[in-house]
Amino acid sequence: MTNNSANNSAISIQVMVAGRVRVSPDLPFGNGCGLVRGSGFFVPASKRIWLPVCAFLVTTPHGRILFDTGWGRDMSPDGVYDRGAQIRSLGSWSLYRVNQGVVGPGMTVPEQLAAQGLSPADLDVVAISHLDCDHANGLRGVRDARRIMVSRDEMRCATRFPNSLVRFNASWWRGIDLDLYDWNDHEGPAGRSYDLFGDRSVQLINIPGHTDGQVAMKITAPSGRYVLLFADGGYATRSWRDMVTSGIVYDRHAQRSSLEWIREQSLSPLCVRSVACHDTANRPETILLS
User: Fold this and answer.
1) Which residue, among 166, 196, 201, has the nearest Cα to 183 in the 3D structure?
2) Cα dist. 223→59, 68, 184, 220, 226 in Å?
3) What is the model's pTM?
4) How many CB atoms are closer than 10 A to CB 14?
5) Given CB 3.0 to 4.6 Å as the disulfide criterion, which of 39, 63, 66, 277 pairs with 126?
6) Could you give the domains of the chain?
7) What are the φ and ψ backbone dihedral angles of 169, each rounded to 5 degrees?
8) Taking the chain, what is the end-to-end CA distance rounded to the nearest angstrom?
9) How far apart are alpha carbons 148 and 134 in whole angstroms?
């Protein structure tokens, strides 16, 4: 692994707000209400809510790691809401009805990297939490990263019928050299995890329920203090605080078990921060970990 970090002892987690998504309130906080209500297919724009779409740039002594990609520029070619462009980018009118997105000027991950004098080629690892559109739509923009990782269980979930027709679109990752990894450790609610560097400093921990192969990222300093990035294991702090699961649930029992684990991890005195991808409290910032 190439070490690109400026300070070999530093660990930082940069929250990158890489666009917004508009959804039915029942999608993030529907508590297992089901596909019809959770998708918000018939919910008008006036009753939807806007949520941030975040990616995370993690800098460790092992190198730079990007967790998720946010939207690609082709969602908003001119930096504004563009219905036609979104349908083309998502490859599905039905997906557009569930997720309306926008990514403003300078907000894609490659654009934010460039503003820091970096490029996707400077990324040692891109780790995708799961393959939903607002997490993987920007994959093509970071295809020059040294390693792009998706759990094998997640790829099986995304390519299984009918998921491959109604929820996921292989065009987001087609032609990209993906490292489909199997679990090599036993952390987390399902006892399945991947220790990225062999020292448990960065762990990809399976939190099934929203999808089969979704992972949280746990970044741990030598002190034992850690930051938890829990993707869509919950949509906000209130998700684990009040035990509110999402509306669309792939496996309701697994999702609740995962959320209980996120709550336990978040309440630990060793936890510096726990961050969901779509919490409305998310702002661009850098979290330092020591």
Assistant:
1) 196
2) 17, 26, 23, 8, 9
3) 0.96
4) 17
5) 66
6) 11-289 (3.60.15.10)
7) -135, 115
8) 21
9) 17
Q: Which two tokens stand for residue 98?
A: 């569930």
Which stretches of the chain drop beneath a pLDDT of 70? 1-9
CA nearest 147: which of 213, 66, 69? 66
- Give the pair of three-digit tokens for residue 207: 């939190």
Tokens representing 141 are 């923009």
Which two three-digit tokens encode residue 126?
A: 């891109």
Rounding to the nearest 10 degrees, give the CA dihedral for residues 145, 151, 156, 158: -60
Cα 69 from Cα 126, distance rounded (Å): 8
CA angle (39, 41, 45) in 5-degree steps: 105
Place of tokens 């020059």: 144
- Residues β-bridged to residue 50: 22
CA–CA distance from 238 to each of 20, 88, 229 (Å)? 19, 34, 15
How far apart are alpha carbons 205 and 194 in whole angstroms? 6
d(CA 100, CA 123): 28
